Amino acid sequence: MKHARHVEEIERVLEGNPTGRDSFVSASWRRCVELYGMDPMRADPAHIVTEAELREHRKQAEWMIAAARSGLQSLFRQVAGQNYVLLLTDAKGVCVDFFGDDLFTEDLRSAGLYLGSNWSEDLAGTCGVGACIITQAPVTVHQDDHFGNAHTALSCTAAPIFDSLGQLAAVLDISLLRSPAPKTSQSLAMSLVTTAARRVEMANLMAESPRDWVLRLSSSPEFLDVDPEVAVRLDGSGRVLGYTSAARRLFPEGGAILGHRIDEVLGVSVDDLPDLMRDRPTEERVIETRDGGALFGHAIAPKAPRQALPRMRSGGALAGLSGGDPAMARLLDQAERLAPGTVPLLIAGETGTGKTRLARAIHMTSKAQGFLSLDCAGLSAAALGAACQALAGPSTLLLRRIEDLAPETATALAGLLDRQPDLRPLSTCCLEPARVALPRTLFHRLAGAVLSVPPLRMRRDLGWLMERHLRRHAADAVRLSPSARAELMARSWPGNIRELEQVLDVAAALCDGPVIDLHDLPAPVAPSPLAPGPLASGPLAPPAAAAGESLEQVLAACEWNMARAARRLGVNRSTILRRIRAAGLQPPG
Ligand SMILES: Nc1ncnc2c1ncn2[C@@H]1O[C@H](COP(=O)(O)OP(=O)(O)OP(=O)(O)O)[C@@H](O)[C@H]1O
C-alpha cells in the first residue's frame, strides 16, 4: 500500500505536478526514470564494488580518508548509541570509510551502508550521497524521498567535502536505518554533518599549507581560534592558492577564486597578516567584508622550508654563521675548503651581511697566526706599511671595504704583498667585484677567489638569526610575539644583519615584559636614495627608500595598501589613516 502510494507520487511528479517534496528530490526522481530507466517497484540490492575496485577507490581517496578520520571518529562518538552510521564516500559515491555499530553489521550491510557500497545516483537512485554529488550541497534524503523501494526506510543526510582547489573530493553521510517520520527530525544530523565536513576541509587545507600564509575567518570572535568557519591559503602577494568551500561566499558568485587577491574581497592585504596573528587581541582582528559586514581573522604564518644542506666537514667558527640557509651553507662549505690554503679571498656582499665576520672565521680556520684588520677608507701607504711590519710568519691581512682604497695605497699594497709572501689578504667589498676600481695587478693579488655573502632578505634562516641574537644579547630570556616575529620576517632589511641586530636591541630595550610585541619594534629606517656612497648605485644596492616622498606619492607607490605605506613611512596604520583623513585624500577610482 505504502509502496503503491510512493509509485503514484513519482508518477505525479513525472507529469509535472508538485507534491511538496524538496525540488532536488523531484528532479532526482525524474532523472531516475527518464535518464537511468529505473523502476521504483524493483528492490534492487545494494551495489557493492569488488575488493580490487574498493582498494583502488581507497587508494585514490587516501589523503581524504586520512584528513577525515579523526573528524569522523569524533562525530561518531557524538552520535554513538543512537544507531547512526557514518559513511565517507569518494566523489564517485563509493564508500571508502565507514563507522557503524557492530551490533547491526548485517542489517547495515544488507541496506548497503557499508564499505564498498556505491551510492551514485545512477546506480542507487535518489539517495543522500547521490543527491549531494549532483547538487554539491548538503541534503537530507528522508525515507520515501528515496526513489527505490529498497531504501525507503532509510534517512540519509550528506554533506560535500571539497578539496582546497574547489573540486568535490568526498561526501560525508550520516544515515539511520529507522527514523521518526518528520524530516525535520534530521536537522541535528544536518548540523553535525556540515560541521564535520567543514572541519575536514579545514584540516586538509592546513596540512597542505606549511609554506604559505593561511587566513582563517569567523563571524564569532569566541570561535575564531578554535573552530573557524572559513580558511584561505595565500601566497606572498596575497593571492588565493587554496580555500575551504565556505570561502565562496566571500567572492562574487560563480566567479573564479584561485589566483584572486584577498584584498579584492576583504579589507585586508598580505601585509596586514602579522596584525591578525593569534597573539593579537581577537577584538582587534576585525576585517571588513565586501558587503560592508565584518569578520574576525586569524592569520597563520608560513613555516620555514626544510632543505637538505651541504654538511660542514667540521664545526667551529664557520659553522656558527648560518642557521640552515642553503646559500649560506654552500658559501660556508667553499670557505671551509679554501680557508686552510693561501689563496687570497675577496668577500663581496651588501653592507652588514657579515663579510668581516666571515673573514675572521676564515682566519680562525686557517693556519695563519698573525691577524691584522685595516679599514681601507683613508688608509695611507705609510700607515699600511707600518702596520704590516708588525706581522711575522703566516698572517692574515683583512682589508675592509677594498673599494675605498686610495690609488697610491693600492700601488703600495701590491708591492707589500710581493715583499711579504707570508701575508694572505682577505678583502671585503660592498660592490660587485667587477665594479671595484683597482689596478688589475692588485685585483688579481686580492681576488684569487670571490665569496659572495647573500643579503639578509634572501636568507631562509632569518628566524634562527633573530632567536640567536636575542638569546645571546637580550637580558631575561626576551622573546618575540608571533606577530612581531612575522612583521620582522616580512621586512626587506637593507642594512642586513647589522640592522637586524639593532632593531632587536632597540625592541628588547623598549619592551616592558619578556615578550617583544609589534609596538615595541622600531619602524624600518632606510637611507635616502640621495645618500652618498656605493649603496646608491651598484648591483649590491638594497631597494630604494621612501625618504622625501609625500604621503600621496607613498600611497600611490604602495597601491593604497595602508600597511605597506605605514611600513615605508615608519609609522603605524592608524597614523596613516589619520593623515589621509586630515589631507582629504581619496583612493583612486
Ligand atoms: N652569520 C652571522 N651570524 C650572526 N651575526 C652576524 C653574522 N654575520 C654578521 N653578523 C653580525 O652582523 C654585524 C655586521 O657584520 P659585519 O661587520 O661582518 O658586516 P659587513 O658585511 O662586514 O659590513 P660592512 O660591509 O658594512 O662593513 C656584526 O655585528 C656581526 O657580528
From TrEMBL:
GO terms for biological process: phosphorelay signal transduction system; regulation of DNA-templated transcription. InterPro entries: AAA_lid_NorR, GAF-like_dom_sf, Homeodomain-like_sf, HTH_Fis, P-loop_NTPase, Sigma_54_int, Sigma_54_int_dom_ATP-bd_1. Residues 321-509 form the Sigma-54 factor interaction domain. Keywords: ATP-binding, Nucleotide-binding, Transcription, Transcription regulation, Two-component regulatory system. It comes from the Bacteria. The keyword Transcription regulation applies. One of its GO terms (molecular function) is sequence-specific DNA binding. This is Transcriptional regulator.
